[in-house]
């Protein structure tokens, strides 16, 4: 594979899928409500081929706008994996959600390899715009309309912040490069851009949109947003932090990380709606990721692998968690009562995901949390380590509460029990998530191995 | 002011005048009433309550127009520089036009261009 | 890689647990669980055989190379681990046999074997990562055992048990990680090996707070006085078999942790804080005893005697003498046998009458003579009657403390007297005093053969350890002499 192809293998496969789905869509005229099997397969095949190329492409290449190396490929693989899960499970009426998801994947892929502020912005927009429509359009209800508009307006505000910061930075330095000299004038510009990244990640002062949006989205979509888009936001934040001038990141990011962890978990304690609950839990997890990022700015050795393994663990357990909500059909906390007896396998799966999210050994979630702890302690950040421990404990309170409800409460009246979803794809992906969570946790160096293999070329300063 | 310009001007004026004349003679005669009779006619009533609703399909067409208009803007430099560009650029832009065309075809097929 | 003999000691119950959960009928599950636990006990004894001949031996197993951050799967079986593993296997077998008649589903039997697997893992691990994994893993089956098959207040008790002990676990995790990271910072070597971390130069000026974190982590499990709040409720609400295993094996995790991690890493700190640790131990002993005196519920009473007896373990450890440490280790085993037995007995009473209050019974001795005999026997062992096992452990702990800090030993010996003061009146009320108006003694059937067999196994062990503790002490002695402060 040639060097230029290495640069765009990821987005190219996403675009190929997009074109394929468009072409297939030409066969029928008016959108009749059907479940387009062939289109779904085509989209998944293209994404999977992209993933295959990403895993088998060792070359590094670089242009003015993009660069391909272990670091970018590692993130692109994560995005492709998450999107595969979404494409396999998302409920469809017509092929349009597939097109939107693939377009967003192309944006995600560009974001991972972007090496220029302008390119970052363009890919950020390409990533976000289809998602507004996905949130709004998949469930045509008042609630999803409200969520879509909220998401769009706040997202547009974030984009505006980013663009404004970009302009300031350009006026200060005269270039869009991420690597140039930094003057003190560009500090404000970077602060604004970082704010946009915080918004995309859902870290505390910019987390307010998240519960509303997740509550109104389909569980699969929420699972994808909470993993792929969060990872993208974190990636953006990391790029900006390492390019940004004077002000040390740990100074302002670590209180925000601690606040996210604590606030997210405390607010999740009282939630009745399960998707809102997982949304707050994802705010807390974003805080833990931000904490790892803080440690990275101080101790640059192992941290990229730590963040990446946390994200990949989070991909499996949080997507699995949302999938569990779909599989059990549970919407609010009461729906879980007595589920253990009604649907033993499904509730065992959901319980495993919840315990993994809580970070209990021997699951993947424990390993991820352990790495972050190690990283924080290595960087000497006792304050954040203590905050992470405290927030884990609070988190355990509600994750365990859900498990208790599933197994130890009396079931609701038969009429009120939500229907159980039994689709092949959902069950298959659930089995994959469960295996990853269990076996990954028993092999302590798996995620760091993958992380260090993929990110090896990134070690010497590709991020800087 | 050279002769070519004067000829050009004359032809344009003749064409415009001729077409108006032909339209006036051949076209159906009707008096324009109501909104149609307004001097500034856009398809949308120009007067009304400030927060009134407008048809969504109109918005959709407007957005589509902007999108494809922006796509078209990429073609201008290509047309201007076509003899200096490499073969690679030719291929890229052809692919680009094809993609835009495909999208347009998809929209048309799905009924996105119908004003309902 | 070899055959991985030790790995099977925790893998076998784990596999059995998974298998039993998948069995179609509950009667089949019950039989399978009993057979599996008997097999595991036999296997544990078989593995420990060489240790009797050569007591300083430790069977080591490290089949895999070190992975990221120096984590390396390492198991070892020495005298202390072996005694605790054997105790766990024995108590699992007896508890399962005691709940033979319960109508519980496959999950019940599966949970017990999962718990056994986790406990074995804790007692075998020499790598702190795996130690912690097993440590935390043990919480999950216990949570379900209490929450699903306990008595009325089970949901709250299970939740409280889990959160309380998980908070302790998090402190432990922070402490362990700080230790490992600081060790790496000073020596440049990533290691989680307990032996390599002993006397680690890493902690330096951070030692006090790492010590505190670890002590809180282990102390919640022991439980040490201000951290004991979860215990009475969990013990009371758990099913009899669960309480027996909780008291008999799970509480030992804390003491085991102190012996294996805290003392080897921080001998200086332990020595410096000796009076404080001793004071905590004395508070545990006296507080547990006084609380036990006030109880009207037999199970709560036994739960508080647990607090008191674990105080003796702590006392022996705090003395940091060879004698005291041996006493503490012995006391762990003794407490497992006698308290486990008492919980099983109370459970048998509860199974018959669904009552646990002391006032609910009276004059049981006429109705159920063999029940009276076994209860009396095991209670006397728990009180510390010379000739039975409890006496030896307490005596050695007290002797150890007397060597290093006499006043505390004097105070702690009060506990032995108090034990008689709370144990005997309760016994007298239940078995000899005339039955009150609300008494349900009429309903009590005497023990059947199965129950007699279970209890006589315990009684024989109690008698054997009381009369000749030498065999077991020889097994425990190497660890103790390693940790004892040089005189």
Q: What's this model, at a glance?
A:
In chain A, helix 5 (117-137) packs antiparallel against helix 9 (219-243), helix 11 packs antiparallel against helix 12 (303-328) and helix 12 packs antiparallel against helix 15 (364-378). Chain A has helices spanning 3-25, 37-55, 70-89, 96-113, 117-137, 142-173, 186-201, 209-216, 219-243, 249-269, 274-298, 303-328, 339-342, 344-358, 364-378, 382-408, 424-442, 446-455; strands at 61-62, 67-68.
Description:
Chain A is mainly alpha-helical. Chain A contains 18 helices and two strands. Chain A has helices at about 5-25, 35-55, 70-90, 95-115, 115-135, 140-175, 185-200, 210-215, 220-245, 250-270, 275-300, 305-330, 340, 345-360, 365-380, 380-410, 425-440, 445-455, and strands at about 60, 65-70. Chain A has a two-stranded antiparallel sheet with strand order 1-2. The longest helix of chain A is centred in the middle third of the chain and has 32 residues, at about 140-175. Chain A is globular and about 65 Å long. Chain A starts with a helix and ends in a 9-residue tail after the last helix. Chain B has a domain at about 55-110. Chain B is about 60% helix and about 0% strand. Chain B is built from three helices and no strands. Chain B has helices spanning about 5-25, 55-80, 85-110. In chain B, helix 2 (about 55-80) packs antiparallel against helix 3 (about 85-110). The longest helix of chain B is centred in the middle third of the chain and has 25 residues, at about 55-80. Chain B is flat. The termini of chain B are far apart. The mean pLDDT of chain B is about 80. The two termini of chain C are about 40 Å apart. Chain C has a domain at about 275-485. Chain C has about 475 residues and is mainly α. The longest helix of chain C has about 35 residues, at about 155-185. Chains in contact: A-B, A-C. At the A-C interface, helix 15 and helix 16 of A face helix 5, helix 6 and helix 7 of C.
């Amino acid at each position: 594979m040639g060097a230029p192809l290495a640069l765009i293998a990821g987005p190219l496969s996403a675009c190929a899928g997009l074109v394929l789905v468009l072409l297939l869509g030409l066969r029928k005229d008016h959108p009749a409500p059907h479940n387009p099997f062939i289109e779904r397969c085509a989209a998944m095949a293209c994404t999977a081929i992209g993933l295959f190329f990403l895993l088998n492409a060792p070359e590094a290449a670089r242009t003015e706008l993009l660069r391909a190396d272990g670091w970018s490929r590692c993130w692109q693989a994560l995005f492709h994996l998450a999107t595969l899960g979404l494409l396999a499970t998302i409920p469809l009426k017509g092929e349009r959600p597939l097109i939107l998801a693939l377009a967003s994947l192309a944006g995600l892929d560009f974001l991972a390899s972007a090496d220029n502020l302008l390119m970052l912005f363009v890919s950020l927009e390409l990533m976000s715009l289809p998602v507004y429509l996905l949130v709004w359009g998949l469930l045509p209800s008042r609630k999803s309309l409200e969520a879509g508009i909220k998401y769009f307006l706040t997202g547009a505000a974030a984009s505006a912040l980013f663009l404004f910061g970009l302009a300031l930075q350009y006026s200060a330095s005269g270039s869009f490069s991420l690597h140039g000299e930094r003057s003190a004038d560009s500090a404000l510009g970077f602060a604004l851009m970082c704010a946009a990244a915080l918004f995309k990640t859902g870290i505390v002062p910019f987390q307010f949109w998240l519960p509303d949006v997740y509550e109104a989205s389909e569980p699969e979509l929420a699972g994808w947003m909470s993993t792929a888009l969060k990872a993208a936001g974190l990636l953006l934040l990391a790029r900006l932090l390492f390019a940004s001038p004077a002000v040390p990141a740990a100074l302002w990011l670590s209180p925000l990380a601690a606040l996210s962890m604590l606030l997210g978990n405390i607010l999740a304690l009282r939630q009745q709606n399960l998707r809102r609950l997982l949304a707050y839990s994802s705010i807390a997890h974003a805080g833990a990721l931000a904490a790892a990022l803080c440690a990275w700015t101080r101790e640059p050795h192992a941290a990229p692998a730590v963040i990446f393994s946390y994200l990949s663990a989070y991909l499996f357990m949080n997507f699995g968690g949302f999938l569990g909500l779909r599989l059990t059909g549970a919407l609010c906390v009461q729906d879980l009562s007595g589920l253990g007896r009604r649907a033993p396998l499904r509730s065992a799966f959901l319980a495993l995901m919840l315990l993994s999210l809580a970070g209990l050994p021997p699951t993947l979630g424990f390993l991820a949390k352990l790495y972050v702890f190690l990283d924080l302690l290595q960087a000497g950040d006792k304050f954040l380590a203590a905050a992470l421990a405290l927030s884990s404990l609070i988190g355990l309170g509600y994750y365990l509460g859900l498990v208790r409800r599933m197994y130890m409460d009396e079931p609701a009246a038969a009429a009120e029990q939500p229907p159980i979803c039994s689709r092949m794809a959902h069950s298959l992906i659930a089995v994959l998530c469960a295996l990853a969570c269990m076996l990954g946790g028993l092999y302590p160096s798996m995620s760091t191995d993958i992380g260090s293999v993929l990110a090896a070329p990134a070690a010497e300063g590709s991020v800087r | 002011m050279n002769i070519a310009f004067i000829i050009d001007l004359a032809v344009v004026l003749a064409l415009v005048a001729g077409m108006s004349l032909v339209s006036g003679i051949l076209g159906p005669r009707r008096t324009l009433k109501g909104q149609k009779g307004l001097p500034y006619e856009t398809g949308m009533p120009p007067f009304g309550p400030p927060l009134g609703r407008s048809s969504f399909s109109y918005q959709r067409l407007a957005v589509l127009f902007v999108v494809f208009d922006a796509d078209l803007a990429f073609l201008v430099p290509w047309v201007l520089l076509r003899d200096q560009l490499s073969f690679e650029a030719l291929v890229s832009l052809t692919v680009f036009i094809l993609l835009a065309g495909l999208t347009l075809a998809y929209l048309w097929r799905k009924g996105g261009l119908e004003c309902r | 890689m070899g055959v991985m003999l030790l790995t099977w000691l925790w893998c076998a119950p784990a596999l059995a647990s998974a298998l039993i959960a998948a069995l179609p009928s509950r009667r089949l599950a019950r039989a399978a669980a009993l057979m599996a636990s008997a097999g595991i006990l036999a296997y544990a004894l078989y593995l420990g055989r060489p240790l009797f001949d050569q007591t300083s031996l430790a069977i080591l197993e490290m089949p895999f190379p070190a992975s990221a951050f120096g984590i390396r799967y390492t198991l070892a079986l020495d005298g202390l681990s072996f005694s605790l593993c054997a105790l766990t296997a024995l108590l699992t077998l007896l508890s399962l046999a005691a709940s033979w008649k319960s109508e519980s589903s496959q999950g019940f039997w599966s949970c017990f074997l999962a718990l056994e697997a986790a406990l074995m893992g804790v007692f075998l691990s020499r790598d702190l990562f795996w130690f912690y994994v097993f440590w935390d893993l043990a919480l999950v089956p216990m949570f379900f055992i209490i929450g699903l098959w306990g008595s009325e207040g089970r949901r709250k008790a299970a939740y409280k048990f889990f959160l309380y002990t998980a908070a302790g676990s998090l402190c432990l995790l922070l402490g362990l990680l700080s230790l490992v990271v600081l060790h790496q910072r000073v020596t440049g070597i990533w290691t989680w090996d307990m032996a390599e971390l002993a006397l680690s130069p890493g902690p330096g000026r951070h030692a006090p707070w790492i010590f505190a974190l670890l002590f809180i982590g282990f102390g919640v499990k022991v439980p040490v006085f201000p951290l004991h709040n979860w215990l009475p409720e969990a013990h009371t609400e758990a099913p009899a078999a669960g309480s027996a295993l909780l008291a008999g094996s799970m509480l030992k995790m804390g003491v085991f942790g102190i012996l294996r991690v805290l003392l080897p890493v921080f001998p200086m700190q332990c020595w410096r804080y000796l009076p404080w640790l001793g004071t905590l131990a004395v508070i545990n002993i006296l507080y547990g005893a006084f609380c036990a005196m006030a109880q009207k519920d037999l199970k709560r009473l036994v739960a508080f005697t647990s607090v008191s007896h674990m105080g003796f373990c702590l006392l022996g450890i705090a003395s940091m003498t060879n004698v005291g440490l041996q006493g503490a280790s012995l006391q762990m085993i003794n407490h497992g046998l006698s308290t486990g037995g008492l919980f099983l007995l109370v459970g048998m009473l509860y199974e018959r009458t669904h009552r646990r209050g002391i006032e609910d019974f009276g004059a049981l001795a006429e109705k159920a003579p063999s029940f009276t005999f076994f209860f009396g026997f095991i209670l006397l062992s728990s009180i510390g009657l010379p000739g039975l096992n409890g006496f030896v452990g307490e005596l050695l702990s007290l002797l150890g403390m007397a060597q290093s800090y006499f006043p505390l030993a004097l105070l702690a010996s009060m506990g032995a007297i108090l034990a008689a003061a709370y144990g005997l009146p309760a016994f007298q009320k239940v078995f000899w005093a005339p039955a009150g108006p609300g008494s349900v003694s009429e309903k009590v059937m005497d023990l059947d053969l199965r129950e007699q067999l279970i209890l006589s196994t315990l009684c024989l062990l109690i008698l054997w350890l009381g009369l000749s503790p030498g065999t077991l002490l020889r097994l425990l002695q190497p660890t103790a002499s390693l940790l004892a402060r040089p005189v």
